[in-house]
Amino acid sequence: MISRTTLVVLITALLVSSAYSQGSGPEWTQIAKADQVLMGDYQGKWLNTPTKGYLRSNPKVCAQVINTGIGKYRINLLPDHNRRAALIYSGEATLQGDTIVLEDGDWSIRVAESGLTGSGKVGGQEAKFSLSRLRLGSPTLGAKPPKGSLILFDGSNFDQWEHEDGRAVTWALLEDGAMEVNSRFKNKSSTPPIGGDIYTKQSFKDLRFHMEFRYPVEPEQQGQLRGNSGLFFQGYEVQILNSYGLDGLWNELGALYKLSPPKVNAARPPLEWQTYDIIYRAPRYDGNQLKENARITVSLNGIVVQRDEELIHQTANGQLGRNKPAPKEAMPIRLQDHINRIQFRNIWAEEL
Q1: Alpha carbon distance 139, 256 (integer Å)
Q2: Which of 75, 133, 221, 270 could be joined to 217 by an S-S link, Cβ 3.0–4.6 Å?
Q3: Strand runs (DSSP E) across 79-122, as ranges?
Q4: Phi and psi dihedrals of 288, rounded to 5?
Q5: How far is CA 349 from the centre of its chain?
Q6: In which order are the strands placed within the sheet that holds 161-163?
Q7: CA distance linking residue 5 with residue 277, whole number of Å
Q8: Does a structural domain hold residue 293?
Q9: Which of these, 349, 45, 75, 320, lies nearest to 208 by C-alpha position?
């Protein structure tokens, strides 16, 4: 007879697998079980801590289990989530059966469905720890648009979007109410063309904006090839990238690309829905004379990662492109096709 606890675990795993399998490509449909049930955030307490010292007065400990390749992971121990706190420890781990295992000198860590446990030396003293899986999520998931807002995507159609050349959107419309990038790079020989960036049919200047998104695991990819897309206001890019467990640099999630790194890396693990809530203020002109650059405030998963930042140049890889003048006219909002099958949902904008 199956115990009640075992039955709950089986049902939970089935629900997790079902929730993560929505998509049109193998990035979403062929997912390792460890990436579904072991990868992600953990939180708990230090055990057998010294009678005095840092661990005694700061008993909370957090962890990130980050996929770095097929069957490969990095485990970060840190004092808090959502802060730029110095790592307590970071080490490489491997999947062994159903368990992620790390053995590194004084450090020994096991990650299983029951949680994350281990021990290591901190300040010259051995400390043990026990943590449980935690989904940090976002307080603005499912946020409703204010009265008078323009619903840019509600999961039912692409009526508010088009490709740059005026084509109807060729991205995938999923049954669960999301859209998914259908990349031009993966459909090079298609006639008529499939994929490419998409643009709102309406143009904007000042606005309040909400969007939900998620990226796949893609264990065979690294760096800028992992979960890459971009969100553009008048040509200025707010970066989208699988940045879970990374340093939070100027080209990672929450960054103003080539301009400003996020104040903190608030990226969630792959497969989990995340939110961008943004206030954008367009450049100010007096006739043809630029008086003020654009400014932007960006909240990622409810955490302010860019606060009233001045956009001092255009987004571009090369210096020449950054010398373009600040835009004067209203422009469409743009979502980038950068090869990865990013998903988006619940997109709306309120003109200010």
Answers
A1: 22
A2: 270
A3: 89-96, 99-104, 107-112, 115-122
A4: -100, 5
A5: 20
A6: 161-163, 198-204, 331-335, 229-233, 236-240
A7: 39
A8: yes
A9: 349
229 Cβ contact list (under 8 Å, min separation 6): 181, 213, 215, 240, 241, 335, 336, 337, 338, 340, 342
- Report how many domains make up the chain: 2
Q: What pLDDT, in 10s, does the model give residues 274-283?
A: 999 999 999 9
C-alpha to C-alpha distance for 45 and 66, rounded to whole angstroms: 20
For residues 308 and 162, state if they share a domain.
yes
Its domain, for residue 93, covers 20-134
HEC string for 144-190: CCCCCCEEEECCCCCCCEEECCCCCCCCEECCCCCEECCCHHHCCCC
User: What is the value of pTM for the model shown?
Assistant: 0.90
**Alpha-carbon span 256 to 274, nearest angstrom:** 17
Residues (pLDDT < 50) of the chain are 1-21
87 in a structural domain: yes
CA Rg, the chain, in Å? 22
Q: Residue 332's Cα: distance from chain center in Å?
A: 23
Look at residue 236 and tell me if it is in a domain.
yes
Q: What is the pLDDT of residue 8?
A: 36
User: Which of 72, 64, 63, 68 has its CA nearest to residue 96?
Assistant: 72
Same-domain pairing of 130 and 177? no
Q: Which pLDDT tens digit goes with each residue over 336-345?
A: 999 999 999 9
Residue partners of 110: CB distance under 8 A and separation at least 6: 99, 100, 101, 102, 116, 117, 118
Task: Compute the distance between CA of residue 204 and CA of residue 126 in angstroms, rounded to an integer.
Answer: 57
Q: Is residue 229 within 8 Å of 287, Cβ to Cβ?
A: no
